[in-house]
Amino acid sequence: MAVQVNNDMQQSRLNLLQNSPFRTEDVLSLSVANDFVGHPFKPLRSSKYIRLSDIEIPGQSESLTVAQWNCHLNSNHHEVTRLLDLYKNKVEVLGICESFVTQDTFLSSQFFPGYKLVSKSRSSMRGGGLTFLLANSLDYVIRDDLTLWNERKLETLSIEIELEKNRKFIISLVYRPPSANPDEFFGEFDGFLQRMSSTKLQCIFLGDFNFDLLNLEGVNLDFFNLILSHNLYPAVSIPTRITDHSATLIDNIFLSSDAIVECCADVVLHPGSDHLPVFCTIKRFGCKHKTTTKLQFRMMKAENLRKFKDKISTVSWQEVMAEKEDPLTAFDKFMNILSPIYDQCCPLKTATKKKNQPRKPWITEEILEMMKKRDQLFSDYLNCDSWEEYRKARNRVNSARRAAMREYFGEKLKSQKGDIRGTWLTIKSVLGNGKDSASTEQLAIGERTVSGRQEVSEEFCKFFTKIGSQINQEAKDQSGQLDTEQFDDNRGLHHSFYFTECTIDDITQAVKSIKSNAAGVDGLNIKAFKAVAAYLLPVILYLVNLSVQKGVS
């Protein structure tokens, strides 16, 4: 329990922290790393002690700093203010257990610049009470429906905060009186945790639980097992209450392991109370909801294509055709003219891909009802061990689903008799497409590395278009003439092939034969390309023939 202190008592506590047999250097040996061998206790990160002069200011980027302290807020408000000042008011949530704040207490937000007070006090007993100090910048809602108040067993105060859009948390401040019956507390607290879990929001619990997690025996172990059963893990791993004869870990912050990816918890060596304040900075958060996929697409409306066509019709390609030696340089000039017009007329937009999963066509209403019954029996099994009934329902659902799937595809294949394409599409939908989405992002060429889809593509083009000229060079004798003796009758020149210059008709037919609308590495959509193809044919013909002449593609 917290005790009211004066200056002399604060100094004696400071001396105790510095000179007791449980001073900082020795108390580290009581941490989880050494004393919890054989126990399942694995905090999210090993804690450390921080002196007031060594306090580190929490970072700004996507972090949340919460703290808990058991102290009398009415008489120690100046110490709390000093502590928050040392953290430069970067602490968003500070929970005070046994705050002794009552309706008659003259204490308001003016004592804590930058913070608002949310308190709940006892009505029939002295002492106790819970108080939140919340940063003014924090959006919060008091969750009375998640506040459990039994002054002899368990006191809780819950708030819901929103850090950013669709990023909500519930933070609960908890105090268990040391005289509370452990079994009665376990029953109340277990029900409370189930209610919190039903909100589907990520939860953080902080408070004074009066169970020593450095002594995992008896009721302490029962409490720890209860916490673990709700997928909660402690952030603090070192003693938070140090006296001249004991060092116990009874103040803690519990976090959901699947919600919190990275955090660090520090215990501040402060003489203001017989409990030490605990600070936890949650640096990164996991994500329970499904991530959305961003898609980029071009605006290909008739109006956009018309503007694109009008602008391309006025473009002069003389600069491109003036390049007589290097096809790649000519192509770069071509794209430098075309791309800005394309981006202006058909701008790139970003949209969120919806992940709506339609019901499989063979899942009937009858099967859906069977699934609901199966799910209900599974819930009953978790509560009263009715495994056999659940197993039978599960097997019935699986059998019905497989039979319905066979019947559906059987009828579909019958209806597609004589339709080879439709039959193979149906078979493919059953077997899956088997495609591997992996792509070559890097290419090692000698001692250098090429990265990027377009750069890798260009390197492949260079290799395959130059390999012919390299073989031709190797086939020449020293006089520069082709050594025809290396070709025998079976591998003569009649097996060779030659490129001839293309014509406008060749390019026109090639454009018409394109079936896909997918864009290439240059980002040019085929639909947009076909809309302006008539104006691009001369310059494309020039680029193709120059590439053939120079052996570059």
Structure description:
The chain is of the alpha+beta class. It has 4 domains: 7-285, Endonuclease/exonuclease/phosphatase (Deoxyribonuclease I, Chain A, 4-Layer Sandwich), CATH 3.60.10; 294-356 and 498-553, no CATH class; 365-431, no CATH class; 440-477, no CATH class. 39% of the residues lie in helices and 20% in strands. The protein has 15 helices and 20 strands. It has a 7-stranded mixed beta sheet, with no helix packed on it. Helix 5 (182-197) links the parallel strand 9 (167-175) and strand 10. 25% of the residues are buried. The model is unreliable at 1-6, 16-44, 286-291 and 487-493 (pLDDT under 50).
- Helix content estimate: 25-40%
Separation of the first and last Cα atoms? 81 Å
Summed up, the domain count is 4
| Category from helices, strands and their pairing | alpha+beta
Number of helices: 15
What spatial form do the alpha-carbon principal axes imply? Answer: elongated
Radius of gyration: 37 Å
Low-confidence stretches: 1-6, 16-44, 286-291, 487-493
CATH architecture classification name of the largest domain: 4-Layer Sandwich
Strand content: 15-25%
CATH C-level category of the largest domain: Alpha Beta
CATH topology of the largest domain: Deoxyribonuclease I, Chain A
The named CATH superfamily of the largest domain: Endonuclease/exonuclease/phosphatase
The side-by-side strand order for the widest beta sheet comes to 1-15-16-2-3-5-4
Biggest sheet record = 7 strands, mixed
Mean of all residue-level pLDDT scores = 75
